[in-house]
Amino acid sequence: MRGGLVLLAVTLLLWVWRAADFALIGSYAPAGFVAIGCILMGLGATGGVGIWRFGVRAWGLCLTLIGFVRSAITVALAIDPSVTVHAVEAQTALYHSITAIHLIAGLWLLINPPQLNWPR
Amino acid sequence: MGYRVAIGTGVLAAWLASGALVMASGTSAKVEVRTSDLIAAEELIFERSTRDQREAAAQLLQEALIGAGLSVQLQSYRVPNEHWVLDFFLPPVTGINVVSELPATSATAKTIIVGAHYDTKQGSPGADDNASGVIALVRVAQHLAALNQRSANVIFVLFDQEEQGSIGSLVFAARMQADKRQVHSMHNIDMIGYDKNADGLFDLDAPDGEIADTYLAVAQELNVPINRTTFDSSDHISFRKRGYAAAFLTENLSGGDFNPNYHSPKDTEINQAYLDSGTLLASAVLERLVTP
């Protein structure tokens, strides 16, 4: 369970960093996304086990989908790299590592959401 | 060597790469050739699409503009992706505009922007598209820097990532607006190195009024054939989107004299005489616009 919480924290931090990075240059879509994620976690943490599980699973599903899209971009560029130089140059070890984190963490949180120590 | 062209009361001095004598056949034009080239076409004809390639080109162009006696800034930018959805998956877009400002000789806020993009499509060495425009811009810069009097500030910008959606010019135009610069006009030079039918004809997309009138008058005086038309792509559009008057000088695309090597690995040659003619026209027009 602790591993799940670590993955959850890592993915949230990754997205907070991404949100800040893009917000500084005028794009607030990642910030909106991570805000929704934080609201889900916050509601879950205060609203009970059922809401918490729903929130974590929803976050996990989003991460999984993003991981799949990132992978699809990689595959598409391997087939036809002439589409965009920017996307080709984004295919770095860091990009692939983040894709892996999204897929692993996303599936983990979706299948096996961690539980908090709820007060009894 | 240099050529000096007298156009009515104005005087034009510009430099040519070829070193060949260029005679403008207008009635009042007198031409003297100079071969003082700051950048040779051969130096610039290489693929300039990846980050490393574009950085190398930017360095080369910085040196060329410094050679023209100008101070140069490499303005790096980092912007969101073209569509906000891509911000979920890709890093921000980065690039470098090569910028050089030539101040007016008397105090004024009036500013004229001259631009050309230096990046290329993937796989293309980009001779016509757009080493030709870059070379013309450097020569125009050298020419205007040599003038004793200028009644406007002139900013020369070599834009990055035109081929990726005019990103460099969008960033620069936004910056001009944020800085509240009093932009008189923007002049974009893109692809002036191909003229298969040798008619010497250029296409011009310019707003009615002073700018179009100046181009047409100077072209007539220099006997450079010019055809007015409209184009909805290239870097001038970035400025029009911000409400600035912007002109676009290019080869005769509208007349069907289209470069078959466009965006291909075969785009390796520049028609020097045609480039010289376009450079002469641009230099003369800008001289007229900045001369008190």
Features:
heterodimer; A: 120 residues; mainly alpha; 5 helices; globular; B: 292 residues; alpha/beta; eight-stranded mixed sheet; two-stranded antiparallel ribbon; 22% strand; disordered N terminus
Give a structural overview.
The complex is a heterodimer of chains A (120) and B (292). Helices cover 80% and strands 0% of the residues of chain A. By secondary structure, chain A is mainly alpha-helical. The longest helix of chain A is centred in the middle third of the chain and has 31 residues, at 49-79. The mean pLDDT of chain A is 90. Chain B has 7 helices and 10 strands. In chain B, a hairpin with a 2-residue loop joins strand 1 and strand 2 (10-14). In chain B, helix 3 (127-145) crosses helix 7 and helix 5 crosses helix 7 (272-290). Chain B starts with a strand and ends with a helix. At the A-B interface, helix 2, helix 3 and helix 4 of A face loops of B.
CA radius of gyration of chain A:
16 Å
Arithmetic mean pLDDT of chain A: 90
How many E-type strands of chain B? Answer: 10
Largest sheet of chain A: none
Shape of chain A: globular
Most extensive interface between two protein chains, with residue counts? A-B, 21 and 19 residues
**Helix and strand succession of chain A?**
HHHHH
Percent of residues in helices of chain B comes to 25-40%
Helix fraction bin of chain A: over 70%
Beta-strand share of residues of chain B: 15-25%
